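Fold in tokens:
===
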Amino acid sequence: MDTTLIFTGLIFGSIGMGYIIYGRKQANMIAFLAGICLCVFPYFISSVWMSIVLGVGLVLLPFMIRI
């Protein structure tokens, strides 16, 4: 297992936890779901670049979709 993959999973998981807390307190479903996806997706991705691309996309998702 690559340590870069573990580190990116840790970073995106931490950001995801912040999105979950923010989404619950503000009743923002998009941020909440993006946070859950950020916490779960590192378990299923085995490529560092795919992890970075998917993670950055999920981080930016609540800013692009405003409900």
Notes: The CA atoms of residues 17 and 35 lie 6 Å apart. Residues 3-60 form one domain. The radius of gyration is 12 Å. The chain has one domain: 3-60.
